[in-house]
Structure formats: C-alpha cells, structure tokens
Amino acid sequence: MKLGRIKQVDLRKVWEHEALNFTKWLAKPENLELLSDEIDIEISLIDTEYNVGRFNVDIFAEDTASNRKIIIENQLERTDHDHLGKLITYASGLEAEIIIWIVKEVLDEHRQAIDWLNENTDERINFFAIKMEVWQIGDSLPAPKFHIISKPNNWTKSVKQSIQTAGLSETKLLQLKFWDSFKQYAQEHYPALRLRKTGPQHWYDLSFGRADCHLSLSINSQKKEIGCEIYIPDSKETFDLFYEHKNEINTAIGDLDWMELPAKKASRIKTKIKADFKVQDKWPEYFEWLGRTATQFQEIFTKF
C-alpha cells in the first residue's frame, strides 16, 4: 500500500490576514466546535471585533454551560508582549474568566507567563496558550489543528466542578443528566450523529455539515414534550431552499411543523412527541426516538 507524507502548511498560505481571514474562519460554528473539543468546553460566539474601550477583542464568546465570558485573541505570528498585555486588558474590561491566545508560535517566556497567571490568579480565571497548526497529506485539503501549549492545572477537573458548583436548580441538574445519558446512548446506537458537549439546558445541538443551520433536540418539562428540529438562526434563504422540497421531506420523515417565523431572524422545521423527561424510567424510550429522529433529519436534510 502506498502511503502519503504529512507536511505542515504555512499559516499565511491559508489565512493571509488575521482579522479578515482567520478570525472570520474561527468564528464559524463548525470551527469554534473544533476549538471547543480541544479545550473541553462548549464555546458560543457573542461577537467578533468586540469593542473594549479603545480596542477590539478578536472574538468575544461564552461558555454555554455556565455563561462564563470567553475572549480569544488571534496572532498568526510569534507571541509578543503587546498581545499579552492586550489579553489582560480585554479580560479585565469584559470580566472574562476564560482567556485564549491562539498563535503561530509560543515563546518560552510567554508560556511561563501564562503558566504563572494560571497559578497566581483567582481560581475562576483560566488562561490558554494554543499553537495553531495546519497539516496536509500529499495534495489533500489542509487540515487545522489546535495544539495546547499552556492551560490551567487540572483543567478537565475544574470544568466538571464549575458545572457542579454553579448553583444549578434541580431541573437544570436533571437536564444535564438527561443529555449526558442520551450522549452515551447515541454513541453506542447512533454513531453517525455528530455529538457535542452537553450542558444543563433544555436543548442539545448537533452539527450536520452546514454552517447556516444545525440540528437541535429539546425537552419541554412544562408541555411534557421532546422535539427534534432544524434550527436556522439567520437565513430565510436556507429555509426557502428546504421548503422547496417540503413534500419530499415530509414523505421521508413525516409531517413536520414548518415555521418560517417572518417577524424573526430565525426559522425552524420541527417535529415533537409527548414525553415527560422527569420520568427517568422512560428515558431509554425517549433516547431511541431522539436518536432515530435526529438520524432521519441528518440523512434527509443533507441531501439539499
């Protein structure tokens, strides 16, 4: 068998400009998801080039599970004192608790500085130094890779503790348990689903290869319903594209609720069933419906 050779690609050949190219690329949901997987926390975008006094932070975001504020500063060069100072300025101005510095190369003195900040600041404050890499095998498409150079001590443990100590209500804790259990079930029974990290909330989002919409599973304790939908945050064109194939989609999945929501930016295409998620004995039944329905949605909607 003939094997290819892996080679590293110059970052500037992929992203010529930090703000115009790299930041816009990273801000897309599927790319923030790559970073989320690397640092083991769900990142939800708030804005890019967000104003902090006389300056602008590249990416302002939050931790979906705990609502902790996140700032990301991009530097497709070696680390320097100027950007380190900006990180601290942005963090203080936005009261951020997770500070991420993405660079081409981390100099030893700056790695030591990040380590020192993690050891000597409040335990709520967490600094990351991440090396951005791009790799290619032969003539394949270049593939991005985040490589953590410096992170908080016992980061994985602290993430779990932050969820446990966030003062969650009984309902929120049960939601987290439900989605954790569903994720374990889906990994075994529906491996084609692109599972993300779970959180103490009434929804659980899945990506399925599109940047302008995603799959969203939901539990509604008041109406005693569980649902599966295509959620389109801000693209009526995408909704219209799917709507052109409404009959074909309904035939394949069943009659769906097509909600264009003209007065809002978002649109939804949803199905739901009656189910009380607080009845834990019923969870395997609910997991089967959610996994099967999400798989159907993924298979059918990706055709268009």
Characterize the structure shown.
The protein is α+β, with helices and mostly antiparallel strands. It has helices at residues 11-14, 18-26, 29-39, 81-94, 108-120, 155-164, 170-189, 236-243, 246-253, 283-301, and strands at 6-8, 43-52, 55-63, 69-78, 98-105, 126-137, 143-150, 203-206, 214-220, 225-232, 257-259, 267-274. Strands 1, 2, 3, 4, 5, 6 and 7 form a 7-stranded mixed beta sheet that branches. Helix 7 packs across helix 10. The longest helix is centred in the middle third of the chain and has 20 residues, at 170-189. The mean pLDDT is 89.
What level of helicity do the residues show? 25-40%
Kindly estimate the percentage of residues that lie in beta strands according to DSSP. Answer: 25-35%
The figure for the number of domains is: 2
- The end-to-end span amounts to 36 Å
CATH structural architecture of the largest domain: 3-Layer(aba) Sandwich
Give the CA-based shape. globular
Q: How does the helix and strand content classify structurally?
A: alpha+beta
Count of separate DSSP helical elements:
10
CATH topology of the largest domain: Trna Endonuclease, Chain: A, domain 1
CATH class of the largest domain: Alpha Beta
H-E string: EHHHEEEHEHEEHHEEEHHEEH
Radius of gyration: 21 Å
